[in-house]
Amino acid sequence: MMYRVNLLPPKLQREGTIDVRRLFLLAGITVLLAGFVGLCVFFPLNYFLMKNELELTRQQIAELEPVVNRVQALRKERQDLEKAVAEYRTIFRERKTWSSFISGLDSITPVDLWLMGLEISHRQEPGERGEGGTAGGGAGSRPAGSPDRPNMVVFKGVSRTLSSVGVFEQHLHQLGVFERLELKKISAGDNGLNFEITGYLREVCSSYQQANKY
């Protein structure tokens, strides 16, 4: 068996001892250096990746721009078509209503009275704007550019008797369509009494609904 003898003084006998503080200090410095180097590598790399991603996003936006423009054009075209369809339906409904109203006149016309003419028109009221709205912008105003809706009907005809004209005017009043009726003209003619009655419609919507019943 061999023995190892250290003949140095006790102050110099440090073999096998470890300086823990120095070890922790070296480890901390190593970690700090490694972190600093890592940050120096991470930030430029991250900047490079983000720059490439931003450039790719810009390219994708540029490629999608024509598609977006086409979609917007299609959306506008769809809105225009929906507006045109709505206007067509309104016109069709009004024509159907007026057709029903005119057809229903036969049931209220006396046997000795004949209608020779019928005029449906729009009379501009005092203070009414040319665009179709009312002065002051009331609740019943219509959008600018919308067509003027009929508010006056003129009946022209011939009757054998004066009483039949009065009966016909009374029947028109009972329809509930007209706000008021005026006998504008009556005169003797070759075939009887020529007359002209002007009827002023109530509010357009209500008059259409009432007229549709007849």
UniProtKB/TrEMBL annotation:
Q: Is Coiled coil there in the keyword field?
A: yes
Q: Say yes or no: keyword Transmembrane helix present.
A: yes
Domain of life from the UniProt record: Bacteria
Q: What are the protein's UniProt keywords? A: Coiled coil, Membrane, Transmembrane, Transmembrane helix
Coiled coil region boundaries: 64-91
Q: Show the stretches that span the lipid bilayer.
A: 23-49
Name of the protein in its database record = Type IV pilus assembly protein PilN
**UniProt organism field:** Desulfofundulus australicus DSM 11792
